[in-house]
Design a protein that fits this description.
Number of helices: 7
Structural class: alpha/beta
CATH class: Alpha Beta
Radius of gyration: 16 Å
Low-confidence stretches: none
Number of strands: 7
CATH superfamily: Alpha/Beta hydrolase fold, catalytic domain
Length: 225
C-alpha cells in the first residue's frame, strides 16, 4: 500500500483517506482540510502499513471510499490510533460478495476483460453523467493498466484468504454513505453489509464518484470542525 502525504505540516490532527481501486492521489490532491495533515492511501496489492507515518497525532480521522472501505477495515494498526470520525463512502468491507459487495462473477469479469476500453467504461460508470465524467477525466489517476490489473487480482486473493481464515472486518466504521445511483457496488449490497455490521447509513442520490461529496468529506467537514 502507498501512504502519501498531501499535507504534512505536523498538525496535531490527521485525516487519512483510503481511495478506491486503480486510484492514486491525482483526483484528491487539491483538497485542503483545515488544521489537518492529510494522507491518501491507495494500491492494495498488499496491506502493509508504515506505523511510523501516523505516530504522534492527537486525533486521526478516517474516510474510506470504494475498495478503500475494505482495506481500512483490515488494518489492525488503525485501531491503535486516537481515532476520531470514521466515514465510509460507497464501499463495503466485503468487496467480493454476491450479497454484500461486488458479485463474484462481475469482479472476475472485470479481471478477465481489463483493457483500455473496459477501464474507460468503468470510469464512465463511476460518474453520474457525461459532464461529471468529463470533469473526472481532467484528474484521472495516472497508474499503469498492468499495475491496476495486478491490484485487482491481489484484492481478490486477499479477500479469499480472509474468508478462508474467517477473518472479519474490524469495527472501524461509524457511518456509511450509500449512493442510490452507484453502478459499481450495488447499493442494496452495500446496505446489506452495513445492516449486518450495525453501522448507520446516510442515503444520497449520487453515483459511485461524486466530486462535491469528496469536497465535503475531505475538506469542508474539517474546515468547520
Amino acid at each position: 500500500m502507498i501512504q502519501k502525504f498531501i499535507i504534512h505540516e505536523h498538525h496535531p490532527r490527521l485525516l487519512i483517506f483510503f481511495a478506491g481501486w486503480a486510484a492514486d492521489e491525482t483526483p484528491f490532491a487539491s483538497y485542503r482540510p483545515a488544521a489537518c495533515d492529510f494522507m491518501i492511501c491507495y494500491d492494495y496489492r498488499d496491506l502493509e502499513w508504515d506505523t511510523s507515518l501516523t505516530e504522534g497525532y492527537q486525533e486521526v480521522n478516517v474516510v474510506g471510499w470504494s475498495m478503500g472501505v475494505w482495506a481500512a477495515a483490515h488494518l489492525p494498526q488503525l485501531m491503535q490510533l486516537p481515532l476520531g470520525q470514521r466515514i465510509a463512502i460507497n464501499g463495503s468491507p466485503y468487496p467480493v460478495d454476491d450479497s454484500r459487495g461486488i458479485p463474484r462473477s462481475i469482479f472476475q469479469g472485470t479481471i478477465d476483460n481489463l483493457n483500455g476500453p473496459s477501464l474507460h467504461k468503468f470510469l464512465r460508470r463511476m460518474c453520474n453523467d457525461t459532464p461529471s465524467f468529463r470533469e473526472f477525466l481532467a484528474v484521472t489517476p495516472r497508474r499503469q493498466l498492468e499495475e491496476i490489473g495486478e491490484e485487482l487480482v491481489s484484492v481478490q486473493l486477499q479477500v479469499q484468504t480472509q474468508q478462508r481464515k474467517g477473518e472479519a472486518p474490524l469495527p472501524l466504521w461509524q457511518k456509511a454513505i450509500v449512493g442510490n445511483n452507484d453502478r459499481i457496488i450495488p447499493p442494496e449490497n452495500q446496505l446489506n453489509a452495513w445492516q449486518q455490521l450495525q453501522v448507520p447509513v446516510l442515503h444520497d442520490e449520487h453515483a459511485h464518484y461524486h466530486e462535491p461529496l469528496f469536497r465535503h468529506y475531505l475538506q469542508d467537514l474539517w474546515t468547520n470542525n
